[in-house]
Amino acid sequence: MVYHCNNCGKEMKEFGESCSKKCEGEEYLSNIRYFWQEKGDIERFCGFDIKKLEEYCPELAEAYKQYKNYEKIVETLLNNHG
Question: Residue 15 above 80 pLDDT?
């Protein structure tokens, strides 16, 4: 049986894999994008792992860490003034 890369469509021997690290990273970031845009929270993606995100897109991983830190600061400030 012939399978295809989840990202680029290249023929594969195994089901459900990507043909290269590049395709794997693109597929991972596509899932991250979907959960951010459609669900509002990338951590709802069952495959979310900050270390994996750092591997595929260090800039996005750093921005996400900063976002989460600022989210905590806003929550603390709101709680202190509520």
Answer: no
Q: Tell which residue, 68, 57, 9, has the closest CA to residue 32.
A: 57
Structure tokens at 14: 């195994």
Q: Output the pTM of the full model.
A: 0.76
Range of the domain at 59: 3-80
With a cut of 70, say whether residue 18 has pLDDT above it: yes
4 φ, ψ (degrees, to nearest 5): -130, 150
Burial 34-70 (b: 16+ CB within 10 A, else e): ebbeeeeebeebeebeeeebeebbeebbeebeeeeee
The answer to whether residue 82 scores a pLDDT higher than 70 is no
In this structure, are residues 36 and 57 in contact, taking their beta carbons and an 8 Å threshold?
A: no
pLDDT at 10 over 80: yes
- Give me the number of domains the chain comprises: 1
